[in-house]
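pls design
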């Protein structure tokens, strides 16, 4: 079966549009699970629909909308596992992580997520009333690392990645060269025309000034920045925010933010 360039463009645009559309109900479900507030969930969904970034991504073959779709699914599933763990959910989680890594290789850090979720389960099994961030220091990580469900989840993530990206193994030298090239671009060793705009700019500040307004508009970008600071304040002050269901989300998006600034 031969797929010609024009067909691959249509297929890619279809999946970009599909995942961009699916992000809206996922935002609603995630907000509802976290805040237990339907009004907040509706507002979050409405703001998502109005974001120009997702509208634009739906018209092109880009990884952003597909990656966001997988991230939201992983977030929802992580909370579900904390609420009620099962082998089936860990298996699905492993497959989703593999697909996410296939979307962008620097998502490899998500392989730690099944271990983190299992550690949270250990905390809850010890004392459900005292489950918080600091309880992780009391966990015996040998039980977590060699637990069957975490081993299978990580194994399925790796297997899913190679099954959906077979040319990583079929043409390994080209894959290694590609990774080396992208690493040099990311670290600034190799200068490419589309990275010259980063020269002389401050990481983090550049995204606030140029990326967020482009993706969401100036009004929503400003609102998002203040919301982020409010969330940090809420996290520090609120006792409820220290509940362990926030921990996987802090790991998923905190590490992502660190790697991409």
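designed seq:
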């Amino acid at each position: 079966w031969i797929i010609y360039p024009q067909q691959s463009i249509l297929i890619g645009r279809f999946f970009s549009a599909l995942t961009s559309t699916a992000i809206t109900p996922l935002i609603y479900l995630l907000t509802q699970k976290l805040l237990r507030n339907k009004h907040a969930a509706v507002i979050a969904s409405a703001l998502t629909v109005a974001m120009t970034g997702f509208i634009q991504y739906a018209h092109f073959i880009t990884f952003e909308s597909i990656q966001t779709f997988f991230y939201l699914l992983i977030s929802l599933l992580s909370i579900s596992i904390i609420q009620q763990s099962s082998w089936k959910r860990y298996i699905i989680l492993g497959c989703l992580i593999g697909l996410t890594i296939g979307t962008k290789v620097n998502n490899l850090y998500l392989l730690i997520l099944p271990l983190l979720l299992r550690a949270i389960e250990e905390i809850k099994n010890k004392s459900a009333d005292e489950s918080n961030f600091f309880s992780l220091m009391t966990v015996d990580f040998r039980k977590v690392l060699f637990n069957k469900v975490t081993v299978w989840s990580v194994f399925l993530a790796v297997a899913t990645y190679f099954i959906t990206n077979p040319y990583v193994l079929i043409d390994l030298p080209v894959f290694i060269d590609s990774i080396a090239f992208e690493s040099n671009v990311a670290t600034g060793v190799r200068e490419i025309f589309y990275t010259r705009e980063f020269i002389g700019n401050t990481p983090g500040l550049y995204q606030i000034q140029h990326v967020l307004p482009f993706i969401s508009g100036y009004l929503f970008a400003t609102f998002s920045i203040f919301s982020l600071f409010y969330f940090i304040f809420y996290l520090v002050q609120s006792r409820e925010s220290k509940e362990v269901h926030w921990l996987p989300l802090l790991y998923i998006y905190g590490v992502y933010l660190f790697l991409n600034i």
